[in-house]
Amino acid sequence: MNAFLLLIILIPILEIYLFIEIGGQIGAFNTISLIFITAFVGVLYARFEGFNTLKSGMSQLVKNELPVYEIISGAALAFAALLLILPGFATDFLGLLIIFPPTRKLLFKKFSNKYSSKKNVKQDFIEGESEDIDDSK
After folding, report:
1. pLDDT of res. 17
2. Cα torsion at 22, 97, 113, 74 (round to 10°)?
């Protein structure tokens, strides 16, 4: 079965399970309030971190460097904000992990180590000969 399809099926099941369990412990009103509070606070913090990432990216551009981390971080923050807006505790937890810079760096390091393979590094060399041409002839 496709992993993406499996996620589409399993995430709502996990969220419903967590709604039932947490709602049974703290009550329905508190559960709904907690969902709205995490969405609101998470989006505000994502906005704050997004501005920090933008500021850092601009300083990288001023230094004439490519802001690779900032570009990836900005995309991750947009994804985290989406996860926080979606109702649910598992998506909120994952969104909060992505929003905080230390855990975001750990996640990036884990994925970059997984997908960067030194076996796939190509060295582009062109072999050839050169000859100096004298224009005075």
Report:
1. 94
2. 140
Residues 80 and 100: beta-carbon distance below 8 Å: no
CB–CB of 46/80 below 8 Å? Answer: yes
Q: What is the residue-averaged pLDDT of the chain? A: 84
Q: Is the pTM of this model over 0.85?
A: no
Whether residue 134 is predicted with pLDDT greater than 70 in this model: the reply is: yes
Cα-based torsion angle of the residue sequence 104, 105, 106, 112 in order, rounded to the nearest 10 degrees? 110
Closest residue by Cα to residue 56 from 71, 42, 34: 71
Place of tokens 């230390």: 102
Name the burial class of residue 85, with classes exposed (0-12), middle (13-18) and buried (19+) by CB atoms within 10 angstroms of its CB: middle
Cα torsion angle, 100, 101, 102, 107, sign: positive
* pLDDT tens readout for residues 55-83: 888 888 888 888 888 888 888 888 988 89
Q: Which token pair is 126?
A: 């062109």
Tell me the C-alpha distance between 69 and 13, whole Å. Answer: 34
Domain ranges (residues) in the chain:
11-113
